[in-house]
Amino acid sequence: MLELGPVPASIAAAYDAERFRADGHRLIDRMADHLAAATGRDDAPVIPWVAPADAAGPWPADFGDEPAEDLVDVLDRTAAGSIRLHHPRYLGHQVPPPIPGAALADAMAALLNNGMAVYEMGGAATPQELAVIDWMARTLGLPATAGGLLTSGGSAGNLTALLAARQASAGFDAWTAGAHAGPPLTVLVAATAHYSVARAVRALGWGDAGATPVAVDARWRLDPADLPRALADATAAGRRVIAVVASAGSTATGAYDPLEPIADFCAAHRLWLHVDGAHGAAAALSPRHRHHVRGIERADSVVWDAHKLLALPALCTAVIYRDVARSYEAFAQEASYLFAPEREWWNLGLRTLECTKRMMGTILYAGLRAYGVGFFRDYVERVFALGQAFAARLAAAPDFELATHPDANIVVFRYRPASGPSDPAELDALQARVRRRCLEAGRFYFLQTRLGGALWLRTALMNPLTAGEELDGVLAAIRQA
Amino acid sequence: MLELGPVPASIAAAYDAERFRADGHRLIDRMADHLAAATGRDDAPVIPWVAPADAAGPWPADFGDEPAEDLVDVLDRTAAGSIRLHHPRYLGHQVPPPIPGAALADAMAALLNNGMAVYEMGGAATPQELAVIDWMARTLGLPATAGGLLTSGGSAGNLTALLAARQASAGFDAWTAGAHAGPPLTVLVAATAHYSVARAVRALGWGDAGATPVAVDARWRLDPADLPRALADATAAGRRVIAVVASAGSTATGAYDPLEPIADFCAAHRLWLHVDGAHGAAAALSPRHRHHVRGIERADSVVWDAHKLLALPALCTAVIYRDVARSYEAFAQEASYLFAPEREWWNLGLRTLECTKRMMGTILYAGLRAYGVGFFRDYVERVFALGQAFAARLAAAPDFELATHPDANIVVFRYRPASGPSDPAELDALQARVRRRCLEAGRFYFLQTRLGGALWLRTALMNPLTAGEELDGVLAAIRQA
User: Fold this and answer.
1) What is the pLDDT of residues A448-476, one digit of tens each?
2) What residues of chain B lie within 8 A of the CB of A67, using their CB?
3) Interface with chain A: mutation pick from B76, B369, B435, B438, highest number of A CBs within 10 Å
4) Torsion, Cα of B352, B354, B357, B359 (10° steps)
5) CB burial of residue B468 (10 Å; 0-12, 13-18, 19+)
6) What is the strand order of the sheet B400-402 is part of?
7) Which residues have CB under 8 Å from A452's CB, separation 6+?
8) Which of A3, A168, A213, B466 lies in the 20 to 30 Å Cα band around A236?
9) What is the pLDDT of residues A405-457, one digit of tens each?
10) Chain B residues with CB inside 8 Å of A182's CB?
């Protein structure tokens, strides 16, 4: 019998439960201290800016054979070098300061590491995922036939939904026979949609013309009146239109495409309706904001990121189908070591891009149980109120211009002092300069974006602890910069 | 000025640092207790089996407005309902019991939640990711031009690499012009490759014929002698062959495709060589096992899952290109609110399927610093030694049959008692029955797979704490079942 020998000391040490306990308690205190400093509005920068060329300094790649640094110390240094989403002066991307308790759920999920491809590798995580999907589908008003799964981000989610749309609507079996078995495909979508849609159609082999642009209205929303023209043009160009992709809301401005007339158009022309609600589907939680997603209950597929307006850490994206049977067609494939040939609803890997997958559902399930739906509604209403409050300040300030009144918590604006430039290029340069100076100072973090050919400043107000003082403060900081 | 009002109580409570601290310390103790029980070989089942139809019981979807359960209690229940990867009787999938400290790193990464699409949203995580990619590329022996990124799993990794291969080798701009602008594409790949390759080619619109099968040898490795035939057949069928996909090792048996002759073939025919090293690339860490991946340094792209043989929690997959410039071609796309038009190496979202991404690099970086490269080498050598030791036991047991001598830590075998059936269908049924009974008993967890048309039992020995007693024990359990 081949002799195994004892477990090496390095392995025994790494897997020692008491070492984990001691490291864990130390880490929790450091994490709590970081959180307290950020939520307590300390005076340190919200972003500790270092030029990219200098970034590698603290993080060399010369890993040696032996342990070189205490685990908690590496993580502490990581926190010190990272942008602080929990600070109320974080006015940045559509990435929330996660509920701190969700980071605890994440730790348990990581330790358990149930791989989720098959039910056996997710005895709790699988029913938890199906439960949260069920809750999300009901929240959106989808019918009882609805169902879906969680996947690793909105980009993967949009790709997955488009695969299902292709199989349902292409008119030929693109999965098995390939693209050449039918005409080139396309979807109708506004240029304001997230770039992952444009990427997905190109990955699927539809090329640039795989996304047929639909005009937007003055508020950068898809204009349903342009859909017949877009459909006719794409068809005349030899493309088969399989779907309309609507944004709820769009990335740049947070504006919601008008879903009801889009759904009418899809019904009339038998097109798949995919709603990218990665950012804004959570409006359905609020009686006050639910009207923005009216019509989403008529979608064939919806993407909804829990790591945006449900305040979870990345990544946790729901792909929900009006008819759950469609979910099996996105990846019409089997692997004998995993799946039996029949449709096994309990083995989620049949329907996800991932084979091994994180226990994402556990984190959302735990959040809904521990904080209640009320917390999530309060979160959405708070960050949407921040958007309204910031827009009101900008509208009242003579030296600022608001791009459009925000539907949600994303606000696009620019600095136009009376003494400033009126030439478009110089105006763009002013925004870039202001943004650069504020970034390097690190006190406030906000963004820039191109909209209608011009450069604008942009914020997604994701931190519910942000208050009026920060909204006033960022305008003052821009004036000074 | 629109009045914001105070932060709602539900939000203040959820984001309270002291609540986090208290919950965190409680959770760490529960996690440490779970870990101690599993690594201490307690007598409870390794998998607490519940039939899928009954799984929803403890996890209803009726979330109410108010908090309904203590966070730590939900997570504790989750642990109790999950398969225990840290128990030495876990002999299951290619999913490791993660280093417990990595779960702590995961918690910090989740709390910081730096979104990674742009450098600003990952001031520490971006250089950490580039550092671990650099270390992985050097470990594989790739040239100084090599580089890449981390993505959410091996399936996303293989898809990403095939997108780059398509752009480099299709002979037309498939990204922009679409599939119809050129002939149908295909890759040469053995049927033993992971199912994610077969899925990826179908997602890309190449259909069933997008994967041209290459014969395997008696040990289920790609047979390089069959490559010219496969190339000729695919070409004769009107397909353009753009790449060979080799497995290091393959999923079912862990066998390594012979990379050197495959690389010779690719060089002679100017084909992209993609090596799916999701499972086995880590053999490069061990002088004893490095020979299995000889030739990997000649690959154009490699996928390597840190959440397999680097013992990290899912998901953390490296996509490494021989020429880092290729990494920009997988997703030749820009989004104005994120990226400037030039190639910004520091904004990783240009090159990943994900827009928002987890801080995966942080977890691997912290692991390499805190445990040293020596730990990871010891891990690989230990689990490979387990594969050898288990194979030796099976070879010595008259009532068991070994499918093939294992290269790595995956062992495929079946139970063939002298008194048992010889009819193939009955022999298959015996394996399924044995596996089912052991699953339901929950004492040992192992798998079944189809190989060469027959049903076999299978284990990936991922737990380095597994010892001879478990290897003997599972054979005894199978005999009893």
Assistant:
1) 999 989 999 999 999 999 999 999 999 99
2) 369-372, 375
3) B369
4) -30
5) middle
6) B400-402, B410-415, B454-460, B447-451
7) none
8) A168
9) 999 999 999 999 999 999 999 999 999 999 999 999 999 999 999 998 999 99
10) none
**Residues sharing a CB contact under 8 Å with residue B433, sequence separation 6 or more, in sequence order:** B481
CA separation, residue A68 to residues A118, A305, B126, B368 (Å): 38, 38, 20, 8
CB nearest B20 (choices: A70, A100, A449): A100
Q: What pTM does this model have?
A: 0.97
Q: In B, which residues are within 8 Å of A394 by CB distance?
A: none
Contact between chains at A155 and B354 (C-beta distance less than 8 A): yes
Instruction: Read off the tokens for B431.
Output: 């394996």
Distance CA B53, CA B41 (A): 29
Are A335 and B195 a contacting pair, CB within 8 Å? yes
Structural domains of chain A sorted by starting position, each given as residue range(s) with its CATH number in brackets: 109-370 (3.40.640.10)
Judged against a pLDDT cut of 80, whether residue B283 lies above it is answered with: yes
Q: Which of A1, A72, A82 best tests the B interface by mutation, with the highest count of B CBs <10 A? A: A82
Match 């990794």 to its residue by tokens: B157
Q: Which residues, numbered 292 to 331 in chain A, qualify as contacts with chain B under a Cβ-Cβ cut-off of 8 Å?
A: 305, 307, 313-315, 331
Q: Where are the alpha helices (DSSP H) in B62-153?
A: 71-80, 100-112, 125-139
Q: Which amino acid does the sequence have at B314?
A: A
Q: Which whole-number Å values give the CA distances from A325 to A164, A344, B441, in the listed order?
A: 10, 11, 33
- Alpha-carbon torsion (B80, B83, B89, B95), positive or negative: negative
CB pairs under 8 A between A and B: 633
Q: What is d(CA B335, CA B324) in angstroms, rounded to the nearest whole number?
A: 21
Q: Which of A474, A330, A353, A352 is nearest to A411 (CA)?
A: A474
The residue to which tokens 């520091």 are assigned: B346
**Count of other CB atoms within 10 angstroms of residue B73:** 14
Contact B11 A67 (CB under 8 A): no
Give the residue on B whose Cα is nearest the Cα of A389.
B2
* Closest CA of chain B from A92, distance in Å: 9
- B314, B364 Cβ separation under 8 angstroms: no
Asked if A104 lies within 8 A of B371 by C-beta distance, the reply is no
Pairing of strands A317-321, A400-402: unpaired
The pLDDT tens digits for A14-50 are: 999 999 999 999 999 999 999 999 999 999 999 999 9
CA distances from A236 to A186, A231, A233, A269 (A): 12, 8, 5, 16
Q: Name residue, tokens 């001598």.
A: B405
Whole-number Å distance between alpha carbons of A420 and A399: 9
Is B469 an 8 Å CB contact of chain A? no
Q: What angle do CA A31, A37, A39 make, to 5 degrees?
A: 95
Asked if residue B271 has a cis previous peptide bond (ω within 30° of 0), the answer is no
Q: Which residues in chain A are closer than 8 Å to B68, comparing Cβ atoms?
A: 369-370, 372
Distances A480 to A402, A415, A461 between C-alpha atoms, Å: 19, 11, 22
> Sign of dihedral through CA atoms B143, B148, B153, B156?
negative
Q: What Cα–Cα distance (Å) separates residue A233 from each residue in A184, A214, A239?
A: 14, 11, 9
The H or E element spanning position B382 is helix B360-396
Cα(B216)–Cα(B234) distance, integer angstroms: 17
Chain A contact for B480, CB < 8 A? no
Distance CA A421, CA A207 (A): 40
Instruction: Tell me the β-bridge partners of A478.
Output: none
Q: How far apart are CA A151 and CA A348, in angstroms?
A: 10
Amino acid at the residue A344: E
